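[Meeting: bench + compute handoff]

Bench side (C.D.) handed over the final construct sequence. Compute side (W.E.) agreed to return the predicted structure before the next meeting so the bench team could plan truncations. Sequence as handed over:
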Amino acid sequence: MNKNKIIIFGAGNCGRLIAQNLLKQGEQILCFIDNDPLKANGTITLNGGNNTLSSYPIKSSAYLEQCSDFDSVIIGTFTGFL
């Protein structure tokens, strides 16, 4: 089974929740993208399944112009009030 190579745009709570659910479905998270320069070059650690922790890099939005080896970009950001 080929896993989809996914980039998550948004390194906040929403992006993390989406990534965690995708990992449970067996998808491959390549990295997170975020416009916040304070988050860029950081990492996010998630439970990758089977009780293993995996770290994923946070890249700046400029990374998308350089990267071509991915299947999907999923928007995982929310700004607003409920």
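W.E. noted at the follow-up: The CA atoms of residues 13 and 77 lie 8 Å apart. C.D. will use this when planning the next construct.
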